Amino acid sequence: MAESELSQPVLTDLLAGLPFISRVVYLRSTSSTNDILKRMAAEGAPEGTLVLADEQTAGRGRLNRRWVAPAGTSLLFSVLFRPQGEDHAPTPPLYYTMICSLAVRDAAAQLLGIPMGIKWPNDLMHQGRKLGGILTEISTGDDGQPYTVVGIGLNVNWDPSGEGFDHPATSLANAAGYPIERGAFLRAVVEGIARRYGELRAGHSPIAEWEAALDTIGQDVVVELPDRRFTGVALGVDADGALLVRTDGGMERVVVGDVRLRHGGATA
Ligand code: BT5
């Protein structure tokens, strides 16, 4: 596969006919696709709106960390989930992170034969290196209904290994050994998101599959919270996706935090 240029017509064409996707916006350069889509959502954008940029000047990770990617080398996009007529408790935001992570993992396996793992809660990993990350943000509309913007950043055709990020990093092209056609990969990911979202709406929980894809489970971990840090063994996740860690002092339930494998190992 060869690297390809993205543009508004290319993107519209690529994603045409997919269920769930209602509107597609291509931006050559923008601040952050999450920020743009949140603004559009506040102004009433429909569920299934997707914003993709070739460059972000203020790409964000969690806790206001930076997401860095040279122009044209990556997939940087955000998707709006705004389910109508939910008559049950709102979907936990982490469920959206889960279906998107699993969709990326499937696309990497099916299109490129690359095994990927997921590091709780939002890191996409290959052999202990970070390939991508997900930023899920929830807001409430004027109608009082919550909506969720999920931003996905994937390193595709560049080598981030020398950038000095918090974790060792890699890209799809590094993992595959050849340049990747971004459009084809994007389409496979978005197709997977649409399918998995349909299943979620039909009442199917992604928890079991996501838990099975987590590199973190069964490992000695170091958990870093905003105010403290502890070590233990990651045993699993609960129904909200919170990480359950057994420590010397008992069981900890981690909702927000960073988790590192204690010995730096990884399975995928
Ligand atoms: C994430 O945060 O991993 C979520 C990243 C989400 C980025 C997407 S791009 C489209 C959308 N628009 C946005 O503005 N954001 C989303 P976190 O787990 O907090 O990790 C952030 C950390 O990853 C940084 O502090 C860096 O150390 C590292 N990092 C930054 N850029 C990276 C890259 N390209 N590859 C690997 N690691 C990176």
Topology, pairings included?
Layout: H1 8-15, E1 23-27, H2 33-42, E2 49-53, E3 74-81, H3 93-112, E4 117-119, E5 123-126, E6 129-140, E7 146-155, H4 172-176, H5 182-201, H6 207-213, E8 220-224, E9 229-237, E10 243-247, E11 250-254, E12 258-261
Parallel strand pairs: 1-2
Antiparallel strand pairs: 2-3, 3-7, 4-5, 5-6, 6-7, 8-9, 8-12, 9-10, 10-11
The structure holds biotinyl-5-AMP.
The averaged pLDDT comes out at: 94
How widely separated are the two ends?
A: 23 Å
The overall strand count is 12
Question: What's the order of the H and E elements?
Answer: HEHEEHEEEEHHHEEEEE
Rg computed from alpha carbons, rounded to a whole number of angstroms: 18 Å
Instruction: Assess the beta-strand content as a share of residues.
Output: 25-35%
Helix/strand-derived class? alpha+beta
Tally of alpha and pi helices: 6
- What's the arrangement of strands in the largest beta sheet? 1-2-3-7-6-5-4
- Helical fraction equals 25-40%
- Uncertain parts: none
| Dominant shape | globular
**Which molecules are bound besides the chains?**
biotinyl-5-AMP
Characterize the main sheet: 7 strands, mixed
